[in-house]
Amino acid sequence: MSHRRVDIFKELLDKIVTKLSENNEVTENDLIIFARLDGKLISGDVQNGSSKISDEQKSKLFINVALNNAITCPICKGYLDVDKSVSYDHIQRVREGGIGVAENIQLSHPYCNQSIKQ
């Protein structure tokens, strides 16, 4: 990230914190003014025609790829954190004859496996 951009973000955050510390609400208009965007056309994904890949575009790509490849719970469709909380769930329930083989197991949230699925 460039030093200029860091300074702009620092100034923006300083103004937000100052206004909030004075017990004032930060409005959308405040954010536009604080970010020096007053009177400018704002777009969520500007293409500047440069061949250089910006840090913002790298971040956008990384996040999109990560989310598209993330493991999700087949019951609630939420993202799973396999390092913290995952349950091995029978697809066909044991009480319905399901056995513990890879083809009949799915990763799910423990809550979804124990509560929602019941």
Structure description:
This protein is mostly helical and 118 residues long. It has two domains: 1-40, no CATH class; 69-118, no CATH class. It has four helices and two strands. It has helices at residues 3-21, 28-34, 55-69, 110-116, and strands at residues 87-90, 105-108. The chain has a two-stranded antiparallel ribbon. The protein is elongated.
* Arrangement of strands in the largest sheet: 1-2
Structural class: mainly alpha
User: What is the rounded distance between the termini?
Assistant: 49 Å
In DSSP terms (H or I, runs of 4 or more residues), the helix count works out at: 4
Q: Which stretches are poorly predicted, pLDDT < 50 over at least 5 residues?
A: none
Main beta-sheet annotation:
2 strands, antiparallel
InterPro entries: HNH (IPR002711), HNH_nuc (IPR003615)
Protein name: HNH endonuclease
Pfam families: HNH
GO molecular function: endonuclease activity; nucleic acid binding; zinc ion binding
Secondary structure elements and their pairing?
Elements: H1 3-21, H2 28-34, H3 55-69, E1 87-90, E2 105-108, H4 110-116
Antiparallel strand pairs: 1-2
Key structural traits:
single chain; 118 residues; mainly alpha; 2 domains; two-stranded antiparallel sheet; 4 helices
Give a short synopsis of this structure.
By secondary structure, the chain is mostly helical. It has helices at residues 3-21, 28-34, 55-69, 110-116, and strands at 87-90, 105-108. 41% of the residues lie in helices and 7% in strands.
